Amino acid sequence: MSNDLGLLHRFVPGNRRAAAPVLLLHGTGGDETDLLPLGEAVAPGAPLLSPRGNVLEHGMPRFFRRLAEGVFDEDDVRRRAHELADFVVAARARYDLAAPLALGFSNGANIAAALMLLRPDVLAGAILLRAMVPLAQAPQADLAGVPVLMVSGASDPIIPASNSAQLAALLKKSGARVSHRVMPAGHQLSQADLTIARAWITERDTRAA
Ligand code: MLT
Description:
Blueprint: E1 9-12, E2 22-25, H1 36-42, E3 48-51, E4 55-57, E5 60-62, E6 66-68, E7 71-72, H2 74-95, E8 101-105, H3 107-118, E9 125-129, E10 147-153, H4 161-173, E11 177-183, H5 191-208
Parallel strand pairs: 2-3, 2-8, 8-9, 9-10, 10-11
Antiparallel strand pairs: 1-3, 4-5, 6-7
Helix pairs in contact: 2-3
The site of D-malate has 9 residues, from helix 3.
């Protein structure tokens, strides 16, 4: 575990250095160890970079402040997205990494979406599990050709279907190549998310080879 570069984090070098590195972004109450098993299952052997969100809500780590469930402090979203972008830039230099693919769940997926909209050159792509629109007034970003997989839950009590559809549309409008799957699921992850994410990464690796 390392406490520098601005965010407490874990780095797992993996045994497939050629694989795209994965930036793991946990949900509310998670930490830097939370998504390591998911990262290893979805992208076996890939380098994994896993920071802990710097914000605490009743002791639970998050990546940005919120005013209520699903209602975000957008000034903080902007500030923390830039903080995370600077962390990724510094970590790439420290660990000699290519631009990472984000794999984020819930609050982690939301900060990944904000990162793409505010600093479109930082991520090589993203897997957004249970994501919602992070900013009401999103800047015009150039995400031409950036691959994004969104997996949403049709009965998610936190994220209305219209909201995740709006995020998919926003990313598409910015040029991203978005694949949006809506599963018969709620907010929690299941084996189906892992299977879909793994298949998406494998297809991407095969195309890049
Ligand atoms: C958020 O705050 O990012 C979303 O409401 C999801 C959550 O973390 O509960």
